[in-house]
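Contributing new records

If you add data, match the layout below exactly. Sequence lines come first and carry their own label; structure lines follow with theirs. Keep one chain per record. Anything else will be rejected by the validation script.
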Amino acid sequence: MSEFKIQMPKLGESVQEATITKWFVKEGDKIEEDDSLFEVASDKVDSEIPSPVDGVISKIFFEENAIVPVGEILAIVKTDDDDDDESVVEKPKDIEIKHESQETKNAEIKKEITASERIKSSKTEQLSGESESGKYFSPLVKSIAKAEAVSLEELEHIKGSGQNGRVQKSDLLSYITSKKEGKSDFTPSSPLAVQSKIGPSIGGEGQIIEMDRVRKLIAEHMVRSKQTSPHVTSVVEADVTNLVLWRNKVKEKFLETHSQKLTFMPVFIEAVARAITEYPLINSSVDGGKIYIHKNVNVGIAVAKPDGNLVVPVIKQAEEKNLLGLTKNLNSLAEKARANKLGMDDYQGGTFTITNFGSFRNIIGTPIINQPQVAILATGSIEKKPAVMETTTGDAIVVRHKMFLSLSYDHRVIDGALGGAFLRRIADILEEFSIDREI
């Protein structure tokens, strides 16, 4: 039997420490490879760190809410192999264990200037993990359940053998075997019973739903943004007829040639990146009395996950990518979001955000700025409208494809003239789109 040292994983280039928000194991627990060990929080998501080995947790050095340096030993796992090394690793004496409240963490988040300085890890996945009843299910358990068509209600029914009744992989596999043999005692709830699980009624007419951790973080982030930035919103209407006709003409060939579905969003991202290169102050952050203008245009796309929570994955260096590159990047992020497989690195580094109100058939909106950025663009639905156009024989009423673009910006940095000019430039780029553009 030998020892395996669990260390705080390598995080962002400039991040030297991270906060452990939750331990899923305790000393003496038997674990399997890929079982979740602990959770690291950022301002948007929680990421789990899985075990790379099978074994038994022999020692945990840091408590929940401890801020731990990158590379520091967090725990020791006893593994069954031929190595007889039984050396005990003592808790480092030169590391001060610090604890922080939620308010302190929020204050630290507010001090961040560039999102590239936040925690990132390509080896972990973001996942809320908790059901409406409060039970936690690891990504491995949820993955197996999805593959075996086991519903969330069934997962909640399974008696777990892990800490605090947590469902382990072995528990789920045993249940699946029993189900296939017809020995399961699970009975689906009636619609009324399912509804009652959501929350207690209020006077028989309402419900109470407890926010999960991610929803609470989103709420705090939105409130902090409104308190930090004086929001101003400008609106323009753009004639995108050429863009619509072009997409209708090339989308099937684009899919056949590049194996990529072509939506309007990559064109919007391209237009935004181009406009930002002409108005670089839009691509900035504020720290006290200083304005930081970012070199790269990293465009975040606000999307709603299947669980209803909002996330903003980021397309890095959008100004350097062509339309095909943007499409591939966007489709990859969308696929990962649907499968709950976005990693922390997918969220970090954003300098500007786009939110698509049009996906909900909304024509216009006033979005909230994603701190510490200074502007966010909302794209409305594209609709056919009558419009007056000048012709060689006089004015004529014709049918055109039009959409509203709305820009919310931080009035501490962006004046109305700059915000209006930038938004108008995006509209102009879209209106100038060539119907003969090559793919």
